[in-house]
Each structure stands twice: as C-alpha cells, then as structure tokens.
Amino acid sequence: MLNTTLKTNTLILRRIAAAILDYGFVIGYAILLFGLVGMLFGFDQMGKMEFSPAAGQLIAFSSLTLPVFLYFFMQEKSAKKATIGKRALGLQVAMIKTSSNHSQGILIRTIMKLLPWEIAHWGIQWLAFYVKKEAAPPIWVWVVLIVPQVVAFFYFVSMLYTKGTLSLYDAIAGTKVVRQDAKV
Known about the structure:
- By secondary structure, the protein is mainly α.
- It contains seven helices and two strands.
- The protein has helices at residues 2-41, 43-46, 53-77, 84-88, 102-132, 139-161, 168-173, and strands at 91-95, 175-179.
- The chain crosses the membrane at residues 20-43, 55-74, 139-161.
- It is a multi-pass membrane protein.
C-alpha cells in the first residue's frame, strides 16, 4: 500500500516538475521573442503599436502558440515520446490502447492542451482593444478570459484524480503519461 501511494505521489510530482521545466523553456522563448521585437522596433515603441484583435491574434499565434505547439507535438510524437521536461523526469506519453495511432493521439492531445491558452490569448487581444478605446470590455470578453482558466483548473484536477496518469485532455486524446520504464 505504501509503495503504491509513493509511486502515485511520485508520478504526480514528476508530471508537475516536467510541466514546470517545459513551461520554463516556453517562458524563456517568450522572453527571447520579446527582446528581439524590442530590439527591432524599440522597446519604447512596443506599447504604442496598435493592431486589430484579429491581427494581434494572428501575430501571437504565429510567433508564440505555433512554435510552442510544434515543440510539444514534435517531441511527444518522436521515438522518445516525451518533451525535454518529461525526459528529464523519466516520463513519456503513451496511447491508452496500444493499437491506436500515436501521432493522431499526440496531435489531439496537443491541441486540447493548448486550446485554453489560445482562447485566453484571444480574450487578451479583445481586452487590449477595449482598454485602448477607453471602453468597458463587454461581458463576453471576461467569459473568454475566465473559461480557459476554469478548463486549465479541471485539467490539473483531473490529473490529480487519476493519480498523474491522465488529464482531461489525455482522456479525450486517448493518451496517458507513464514512466519511461513502464511497459506500455
């Protein structure tokens, strides 16, 4: 019983630590991107740039979300089946049914994992639009900002509930996170 509890807690902690490492890379990339844009256009000009919400969303998607999507997708569909964070902590992504298409499962997993993030970006673009116009954002903007946080909370709770093996996006994609030494 104690050994099972220890393995469960270790899997949860490993998964959280792997996510922290992976998102550390994402934050590092975002800082690098911010610095590059600041050097190209001038840091003092960055706050003065105005884009429509659609243009801002397109810029954010192509410069931040798409590279992050490709990082997770390419790493987890590779032969190692793990991002740098997961590899560092001895984890990998496996299919719940071994006969399932791994690449397709990873594609769905990555889309579902990052969808709340992208929806929140959309809300931020609209919030900035209304703030610059000195207008109160409509309620739907707040809904678009809050719903992704609620979804992310459920992702985390579902991972805890399944003792680190599945999150809600894993269940949708037919994937699970296991130790690298586990028989899949």
